[in-house]
Amino acid sequence: MKKNKLFISIIFMLIAALLILIMQENSTTASEASHQISVIVSDSNSARWTRFRAGLEQAAKDYNVNLNYVTTTKLDDMEQEKSAIDKEIDNGTNAIIVQLVDNVTAHDYITERSKNATIALIETDLEQPDTSKSYSVTQADNQGIGTALGQLVSSDTTNDSVGIVTGDSAAVSMRFEALQKAFEAKNVKISWTVQNSEEAVLKQIGSPAAAIVTLDNETLEEIAEDYKDTKGKVKIYGVGCSDKSIYYLDSSKIAGMIVPNEYTMGYVSLSKVAIFLNNRMSKIVDTTVNYFTVTKENLYSTENQKMIFPIVG
Amino acid sequence: MSEQRKTKKRTYLFHRRPDATPLSIRGIILTTFTVVAVGSVLLTSFVLYQQFEKHSRKMITDSTERLTEQAAMRLENHLTSMREISDALYYDVIKDTDFSQSNVNDEMNTLYEANSNNLVSFALYTQSGQLLSAAPTLMQKEGLDVTQEDWFQNALNNEENLHFSVPHVQNLFNSQSNRYYWVISLSRAVVITTNGVPQEGVLLVDMNYSSIEQMFNEVNDKNNGQYIYLTGSEGQIIYHPRQMQINADLYNENNLQEASYDDGVHEETFQSTSRTTIIDTISYAGWKMISVIPSTTFSLGMNSYRYFLVMVIIVVILTIILINRLVAQRISRPLTDLDEAIQTAQEGKPLIPADYDGGSREVQLLGRTLEGYRERNTQLMQDIVVEQEEKRKSELDALQAQINPHFLYNTLDSIVWMIESERRKDAVFMVTQLASLFRISLSHGDTIITIEDELKHAENYMNIQKVRFKDSFTVSFDVDHAIEPYCTVKLIVQPILENAVYYGVKNMDEDGRINVRGWREENDIYITVDDNGFGMPQEVVDQLLDENNKHVPHHGSGVGLINVQKRIQLRFGQQYGLKIESEADHGTKVTIHLPAIIYNERNHEMLENGRMTQEDEHEEK
Fold it and tell me: B217 to chain A: nearest residue by CA?
């Protein structure tokens, strides 16, 4: 009787193993690109995101996930962004990579929504980071960028006074703080500080500064455009990452530029999320990506051209 | 020694623990067959898998090698066509042109248009770096000094050769659409004629990097981990499917090492991953085309095969176990049947041939042998019974023989005494009585007689004794005549009377008295002999019928009583026999207890031949 039980249990075990194997084989063949990751950034089709997007796409390919790069217009406030995020979560996305328009008020919302999908922030962290860390951050080294920009501007001794165009993103305010400190340290006089390029043009007429410093790609392009025919009378510096701003640098309309490593930001943010989705026991760590200080002189150096002109096939 | 070891081994195999239940034949067959079969299946599968893996590894390597060769050929063709364009431009256009009178812009543009997919630009520079012609027609960047560029210097330093640069961003012309091109520069030294004076110059053909990239992206389209990349002769990466990750330090490649390998297949370990690389050198540019097959690619291809193999193994093992079970059952069934038959045979029933006929020859033989043993055993058992019976009979005869001389001696002693004292009448009476006694004693050699005869015999005896002891005691017979036709063992009352006489009443001063009574109670017959003699203490009484008691005298009464007891019990059973009651100075009473079996021919014969069983007894009653 006992022997019979043993015999029957062996047979059962073998049959169970067989069934498990068959099921597993079916699931391995069917498990292609099982996760969907949505990316929400402001003005998604802007050339400013070209490198970031190339990084995302490469990582999506490497980690075999579905990338949904959500098409957006310029997001002016958090409400617009929230509705875009909610829509993606409702559509059943597994994770959202998001550039916050406003990192001050979004705190509760991000903490809440991280229960529904894995959330990864790019460019900036929340102003008051969540202690429970329900989300991950892949941010540009905004403080470093601000400082480096300050140093770049002050390295040219003719830049005795500067005008600063801040812009309105969360990253910009962090850069701005670091920039101010750098200028203080180097005794560079800040003639004026304005919010956008239109104001800057007006201010420059009133109290002309030797250099205008911008803190994001969009403003940099605008200012460079505004002053492209002044033959370098006013030096323009800024943080940029689009082909256009690089072209302006190449054609001496911009004197110097900090280029955040947007490709790495895209690649790293998505790969971290993909790894986490494949193994939810793993932990997502925050990452800060580097940046490059570029002038016309070193634009074509072997190292710089690799990152500044991405081979985007 | 070796035999010993063998035995030990065998013992270990099937009886590992002395307290464990030994396995059944079916279990042993099933276990051993299954272990051997499963072991063979696993071993075979392992060997097959190894072979298959080796084969598939070779196939993947071979096909990758072919793919690499094809890609190398395509690239070579591409580079050749680029070189041919450069040749055409130089030998057919530049050489025939005097640049003081015209330039070559038109020809360049024509050639450019024809190959615009693969080209970014043509440019012809003088030795000092001055641009002579270019296609498409573009504005040169301000403040540009091409003489510092690698492609320019390489061309002039080695005038005989064409030079392929590593990919770089073209930095020659003002781009109108903010577009920057990754190019591979093909530069060569040329002779430019101005006013009939030849001078050196450099012809630059900037090849579109994206055509090469596309070419390789197609090859690297496979999603199995293997890829092809391209390095310069020094190992600097020209194309890599993960070029951007490498640039951003997100990915590492063993390019510097691999570029130093010779053409062919190499095994290496990079970042603790073993992989196979196939190197192919591109003849024109000196570039290396490197195919990388990570070991995971091989195992990826083997995965489904592995699943399939494991499934087949499981199915085979299942089948083996089921078949083995059937076989084991088939082999062991006749044995278990035989075993069951033997169990029942122990109860005396014969083995039925059908129980073992179904089995193999050995089992049938075993069944037949066992049946033979069983028959012989039964025969032996019967023989033993007969032997025992005969032994018992001879014992009976011996007992009888033991009485006869004992009594005869006593009687003859009396007769001698009478004749000596001339008491003829008495002597005649004695001899008559003795004759009667002997007649009954002999009874034609029978052991079983009627109670009537037995009591007659007792009377004869007592008559003799009374004469002998001069009527010093009285004897009375008070017997129910109804018991007379029943069976008894002969000569059982006489020894008791003898005891009563010799140890009871012989030496009494007063009148000794012996009473013999006989009656029937239900199915039992009782005959008592009681005297008023000296009697005995209880301990003596207890010892009288104890066969093992050494203190009982082995002559006279002791032996007589034990004999009587044994003879009664041998014929009628342990529940019958003697009962002795005695009290010192008050006399002794001996009760003979017999079954009531009527004396007839059948009963007589049955009792003569042995004992009457209880069923017989009751039947008889």
Answer: A313
